């Protein structure tokens, strides 16, 4: 056989072998079809942010209307055996469980995926509102509107806030601000609609059912549409294996996260910001009636403030991404404190109060908008620790928000000319102390950034850096003056 014939024969043999390999021998199929490689910060990412807003609307947005229900409970003595502090604790219990069980929601999300966890949350929320509408004893309201609804928040809202950041790199703060703006949208819609249904029906029961049905439809839409970017959910049997389950557990519940002082500072700041926010949200309507306005005007003020939040939260996120998240948080915390001390205390007519709620409403949601992005700045580049940090922040906060509404009621002096003065001072103090905490946080972030720049300059990769090695050395000195300079050093951070 010639050399040419041998080559032709070898080619034919290879073709036959390939045919056998491709068609006659079954090829193993992957257990899970890989998802399309979606790019971050694109159109579908913003769709996820909008559905994240809807998840917030169906949970925290609904809770924003609790002030209307609280006013109805207190005015009509709905449950004779209950005190005003019972009603305040029920509202606080919902918020407390939403934060306290946030790590559980995050862990279940990792094990079962978004859709299953969200559906469980929908069932809990629906059962909570429907059963609450039939409650005749105060303990029944604790279990339904307090426990079941609070549990649902951790199973719907928390997984949604873990899905949205996976779709963004450049616009993380903006996307999260859009997500949490559902609180303002829900407050606007439900504070007016709940009040209207109560007026039409004469009691709170159908108002609760209306809230339930609206939240049910919207949450189902979120469960069907939302999913993490480029994520392959492992089979349930694999997720429940001891090794993988313990890995997810340790990533979610890691007490060592408090070794990061930045996380501790954010936890305290977030707690104070949420306490101040809650005091504002549930007090403004009652304050309006105390200065001679009607209950409908008080409800309108709450709705206007929620509408301002709807606009303000996305703007805050975009601005924070542009000028630096800690910079923006610092300025906002101080401005809110000034507004509460100087504007709210002196606002006694309807027009002035409208101006106040619009101005403060644009910024009052700073805590929920920027806590997670700030935590990511503190932990960078160790982003795998972010779930544990976010869980820790929520757990710390939950114990305080449980009694926030009780504090709000206890601070009211019924027989005083200014019955809400102590509440106003307390809320303003919360944000001022928060401002001081962010100053401390900013110092740590500036120091961290300067160390990184020194490293770049030393290895020759930092030629374009605006700061020189001499300035770095000056800022990194271990003196009180250098510490104070780091707090206010002009830098996007």
From TrEMBL:
<feature type="transmembrane region" description="Helical">
    <location>
        <begin position="176"/>
        <end position="194"/>
    </location>
</feature>
<feature type="transmembrane region" description="Helical">
    <location>
        <begin position="87"/>
        <end position="109"/>
    </location>
</feature>
<keyword id="KW-0472">Membrane</keyword>
<feature type="transmembrane region" description="Helical">
    <location>
        <begin position="353"/>
        <end position="376"/>
    </location>
</feature>
<keyword id="KW-1133">Transmembrane helix</keyword>
<dbReference type="InterPro" id="IPR036259">
    <property type="entry name" value="MFS_trans_sf"/>
</dbReference>
<dbReference type="GO" id="GO:0022857">
    <property type="term" value="F:transmembrane transporter activity"/>
</dbReference>
<feature type="transmembrane region" description="Helical">
    <location>
        <begin position="424"/>
        <end position="441"/>
    </location>
</feature>
<dbReference type="InterPro" id="IPR011701">
    <property type="entry name" value="MFS"/>
</dbReference>
<keyword id="KW-0812">Transmembrane</keyword>
<dbReference type="GO" id="GO:0016020">
    <property type="term" value="C:membrane"/>
</dbReference>
<feature type="transmembrane region" description="Helical">
    <location>
        <begin position="388"/>
        <end position="412"/>
    </location>
</feature>
<feature type="transmembrane region" description="Helical">
    <location>
        <begin position="206"/>
        <end position="226"/>
    </location>
</feature>
<feature type="transmembrane region" description="Helical">
    <location>
        <begin position="44"/>
        <end position="67"/>
    </location>
</feature>
<feature type="transmembrane region" description="Helical">
    <location>
        <begin position="147"/>
        <end position="169"/>
    </location>
</feature>
<feature type="transmembrane region" description="Helical">
    <location>
        <begin position="260"/>
        <end position="281"/>
    </location>
</feature>
<feature type="transmembrane region" description="Helical">
    <location>
        <begin position="116"/>
        <end position="135"/>
    </location>
</feature>
<feature type="transmembrane region" description="Helical">
    <location>
        <begin position="328"/>
        <end position="347"/>
    </location>
</feature>
<dbReference type="Pfam" id="PF07690">
    <property type="entry name" value="MFS_1"/>
</dbReference>
<comment type="similarity">
    <text>Belongs to the major facilitator superfamily. Monocarboxylate porter (TC 2.A.1.13) family.</text>
</comment>
<protein>
    <recommendedName>
        <fullName>Major facilitator superfamily (MFS) profile domain-containing protein</fullName>
    </recommendedName>
</protein>
<dbReference type="InterPro" id="IPR050327">
    <property type="entry name" value="Proton-linked_MCT"/>
</dbReference>
């Amino acid at each position: 056989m010639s050399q040419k014939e041998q080559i032709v024969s070898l080619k034919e043999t290879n073709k036959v072998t390939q045919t056998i390999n491709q068609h006659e021998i079954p090829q193993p199929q992957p257990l899970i079809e890989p998802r399309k490689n979606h790019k971050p910060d694109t159109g579908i990412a913003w769709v996820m942010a909008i559905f994240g807003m809807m998840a917030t609307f169906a949970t925290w947005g609904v809770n924003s209307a609790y002030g209307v229900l609280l006013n109805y409970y207190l005015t009509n003595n709905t449950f004779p055996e209950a005190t005003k502090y019972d009603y305040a604790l029920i509202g606080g219990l919902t918020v407390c469980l939403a934060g306290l069980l946030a790590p559980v929601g995050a862990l279940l999300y990792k094990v079962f995926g978004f859709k299953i966890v969200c559906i469980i949350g929908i069932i809990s929320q629906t059962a909570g509102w429907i059963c609450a509408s039939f409650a005749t004893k105060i303990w029944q309201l604790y279990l339904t509107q307090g426990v079941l609804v609070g549990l649902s928040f951790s199973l719907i809202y928390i997984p949604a806030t873990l899905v949205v950041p996976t779709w963004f790199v450049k616009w993380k703060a903006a996307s999260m601000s859009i997500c949490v703006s559902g609180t303002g949208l829900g407050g606007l819609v439900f504070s007016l609609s709940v009040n209207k249904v109560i007026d039409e029906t004469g009691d709170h029961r159908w108002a609760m059912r209306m809230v339930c049905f609206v939240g049910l439809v919207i949450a189902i839409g979120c469960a069907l549409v939302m999913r993490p970017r480029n994520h392959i959910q492992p089979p349930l049997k694999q997720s429940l294996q001891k090794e993988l389950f313990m890995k997810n557990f340790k990533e979610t519940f890691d007490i060592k996260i408090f070794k990061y002082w930045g996380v501790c500072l954010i936890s305290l700041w977030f707690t104070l910001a949420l306490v101040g926010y809650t005091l504002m949200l549930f007090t403004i309507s009652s304050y309006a009636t105390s200065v001679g306005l009607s209950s409908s005007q008080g409800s309108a003020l709450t709705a206007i403030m929620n509408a301002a939040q709807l606009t303000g939260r996305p703007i805050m996120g975009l601005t924070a991404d542009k000028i630096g998240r800690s910079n923006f948080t610092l300025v906002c915390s101080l401005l809110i404190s000034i507004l509460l001390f100087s504007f709210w205390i002196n606002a006694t007519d309807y027009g002035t109060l409208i101006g106040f709620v619009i101005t403060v409403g644009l910024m009052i949601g700073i805590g929920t908008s920027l806590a997670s992005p700030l935590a990511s700045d503190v932990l960078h580049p160790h982003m795998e620790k972010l779930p544990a940090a976010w869980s820790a922040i929520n757990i710390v906060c939950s114990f305080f928000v449980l009694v926030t509404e009780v504090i709000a009621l206890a601070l009211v002096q019924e027989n005083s000319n200014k019955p809400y003065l102590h509440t106003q001072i307390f809320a303003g103090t919360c944000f001022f102390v928060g401002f001081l905490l962010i100053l401390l946080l900013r110092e740590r972030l500036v120091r961290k950034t300067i160390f990184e720049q020194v490293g770049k300059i030393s290895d020759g990769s930092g030629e374009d850096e605006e700061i020189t090695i001499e300035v770095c050395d000056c800022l990194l000195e271990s003196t009180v003056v250098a510490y104070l300079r780091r707090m206010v050093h002009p830098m996007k951070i």
